[in-house]
Amino acid sequence: xxxxxxxxxxxxxxxxxxxxxxxxxxxxxxxxxxxxxxxxxxxxxxxxxxxxxxxxxxxxxxxxxxxxxxxxxxxxxxxxxxxxxxxxxxxxxxxxxxxxxxxxxxxxxxxxxxxxxxxxxxxxxxxxxxxxxxxxxxxxxxxxxxxxxxxxxxxxxxxxxxxxxxxxxxxxxxxxxxxxxxxxxxxxxxxxxxxxxx
Length: 198
Fold this sequence. Notes:
This protein is mostly beta strands and 198 residues long. Helix content is 12%, strand content 54%. It contains one helix and 16 strands. The chain has one helix at residues 2-24, and strands at 28-35, 38-44, 51-57, 62-68, 74-79, 86-93, 97-105, 110-112, 118-121, 124-128, 131-135, 143-149, 155-162, 167-170, 177-185, 188-196. The strands form four sheets. Strands 3, 4, 6, 7, 8 and 9 form a six-stranded antiparallel β-sheet that branches. The protein has a four-stranded antiparallel β-sheet with strand order 13-12-15-16, with no helix packed on it. It has a three-stranded antiparallel β-sheet with strand order 1-2-5, with no helix packed on it. A hairpin with a 4-residue loop joins strand 7 and strand 8 (110-112). The radius of gyration is 21 Å and the shape is elongated. The relative contact order is 0.12.
């Protein structure tokens, strides 16, 4: 009986460890070429974040959009026969991460260029008193440019943050009000609102 309890305890420990490791992994987006003019999209491990999926042309026109609710996984075949020929980007984004996969549409095919897939885990902001900490949680991100703008689009700060440290911004000289924090890395910009009460 003791051996059985020990085995069960070991199994439970392994299961808990596996869940912890799975939750620490970055979100997963897989795309497969299914038929001539369709692709299959599978997305999971987004945790509790609402996630958007879009197929966007090079000039920004959206040809497909979908929302994954909090805690859900996503799997769907996208029929793209009505999409004009050209280069597109399949974007999967939520508050924590951004994934982009190029898709090329020709007369007789839709091809996802999986070798060119980019996934960015977004930098994290935390406010402690009158200080703002910027944390880069992604080991694959070397640096992030951080800018702070006021409501009149005046840039108040511009700093480069590397993945090896945490950058702390002093907000004590800023007046109460609304600001935006722009974070640029690997060719992509993310914007987050910042509200200061004093």
